[in-house]
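Morning - adenosine-5'-diphosphate inputs below, output right after.
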Amino acid sequence: MPNRPTMRTYAPRRDTVARSAARQPAAYRPAADHATAEVLAPYVIREEPYYLAVADEVDLYEAAYSVRMPMMLKGPTGCGKTRFVEYMAWKLGKPLITVSCNEDMTASDLVGRFLLDADGTRWQDGPLAAAARHGAICYLDEVVEARQDTTVVIHPLTDARRVLPLEKKGELIEAHPDFQVVISYNPGYQSLMKDLKQSTKQRFGALDFNYPEHEVEAEIVAHESGVGIDIAKNLVHIAERARNLKGHGLDEGLSTRMLIYAGSLIANGVPALAACRVALVRPITDDPDMRDALDSAVTTYF
Ligand SMILES: Nc1ncnc2c1ncn2[C@@H]1O[C@H](COP(=O)(O)OP(=O)(O)O)[C@@H](O)[C@H]1O
Ligand SMILES: [Mg+2]
C-alpha cells in the first residue's frame, strides 16, 4: 500500500477536534447492582488516555456506539488502534475489557468455564461473558490471531440477537444494553489461514487506521517519548522513508510505536544514531541491504 498519511480525509481534522472537545465526556457511573459494580471496577478507565484525533473517527465511533454497532478497527500494527479504544471507552464512560487474542485461545477462554474449588464447582464468566452480562465494551485485540472456531463465539452477540449461549452452563445471556464488541485487525497480515471469515467480517462496521500525518505523528511521538518536537519530526521523516519501502523488501512500515521507543531512548540520553538502530532498524528487518537503506535514512536526519 502506498504511504498515504490517512485514509479518512474527508472531514477536516481541526473541525472534528474542536467539535469533540466541545462535548463533555460521559462520566462513568458505577452500576447500582453491587455484584456488577465489583466485576467491572478493574476495567473502568478513570483518567483520560492521551489520544490525538486523526480525522473524524471519534464522532463516527460515538455514532456506532449509539446504535451498539460492533466495530472493527483496521490498520497496521502500532498506529493507535488500542489507544483509540481506550480513549473512546473513557469518553463514553464505559468499562473496557480487553482480550489479546492468540492461537491457543479457546472458546472457553472467552466464554467461561467451571472451576473446582473447596465447595465444589463454580462457574467463572470469561471476559466476553462478563462484558455481555454486566455491560462493558469487549475489545478483542488482534482478532485474527485467534482460530476461526474461537472467533465464531462472538456471532450471536454481533447480530440482532445480542445473546451469548453458555452451553456448558445451560444459560443464555442476553447482552446488557451498554455491551459492545470491538475487534482490531491488521489487513497486512492477511493470509488464507489467518483471515476472518466473511460471516464474521460482515457483522461489523469498520474504521480504517493508518499512521497519522506528519505533524500529528510528530506531536504524538514528542508527547509520548519526551523528546523535543524537532527530533520527533526527524523520527517521523525516517519512518516515512521506511514506509515507502513497504512491499519493496519490508513487510510492514515503521510504526508510531517504534518511533516512540526510539524517542524514549533518545530522551534518556542514548545517542540518536544508536537509538534509531536499536528501536527502528534492527527489529524490522534482517536483510543486510534493507538495513543499509534504513541506516542511511537515519544518517540523513541525525
Ligand atoms: N492518535 C494517537 N494519539 C495518541 N497516541 C497515539 C496515537 N496513535 C498512536 N499513538 C501512540 O502509539 C502507541 C501505539 O499505538 P497502539 O494503540 O498500541 O497501536 P495498535 O493498537 O494500532 O497496534 C500508543 O501507545 C500511543 O502512545
Ligand atoms: Mg493494539
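Note: The radius of gyration is 21 Å.

O.
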